[in-house]
Give the backbone structure.
Amino acid sequence: MTMGMLPTELVTDLLIRYGFKVLGAIVILAAGLLVARWIGNIADSWIAHQPVEPPIRILIVRLVRLTVVLLTLIVAIDNLGVQITPFLAGIGVAGVGIGLALQGVLSNVVAGLTIIFTKPYRVGEYIELVGEQGEVKMIDIFSTTLLHPDLSKVVIPNRKIVGEILHNFGTKRQLNLKVGVAYGTDLDHTFTVVHQVLENSVYVLKEPTPVVGIGLLGESAIVISIRPWVKVNDYDSAQAELYQAIVARFQADLIAIPFPQREVRLVSEL
């Protein structure tokens, strides 16, 4: 290129020198993205038939796609005539700066990998931690998503989870129902009625066996503790259905459910 070139000649010279290289790099990148998606889909379909947890499957597929994209990017840069070694060194230096700026994000990634591989909980289980509880709907690299019984979602950063006390209920929960009966009630008959209600319920699991017994001797009633197990998704529905069924059976069998009452005596002073 000479100093006396006209603008049109300069543009033409640049297009001749770098146009095909840039076009080739764009074609390589486009092809690489398509190949990355194609290979990722193949990996996903293969892993789907393996005994692998969903979070690990998602992680592997993303790593496969990211690897293909990075290799494509290196080939495209090399096609432009850029030296790869200094470029990689520059990426390393920039990576250090980015890492310092994104410490919170990186800590979420590390925590996410820890959760995925140690498996303190899995998708579909009901957990309670850091003041929140719900069914695990998604375990991602950066966060864990819980579904509340009211169908709202809570997204918790993974770094808030690792190292905290975790209560994992699994895929089933135990109800804690309480109903009071009068002190003169036939308790053996009452327990039989309660067991019949539990056996007829579509929500109560056969295993583990429900626990039924005296929970408390109150001031005006014997409190019966009823603790069956149900699936996580049936927790609220089962509680409402069982209370209704117990009240109906108690009324049919003339089992009194007393209400709190006190006897007040007025003593007059002469």
Summary: The longest helix spans residues 7-47. The radius of gyration is 33 Å. Residues 1-6 have pLDDT under 50 and may be disordered.
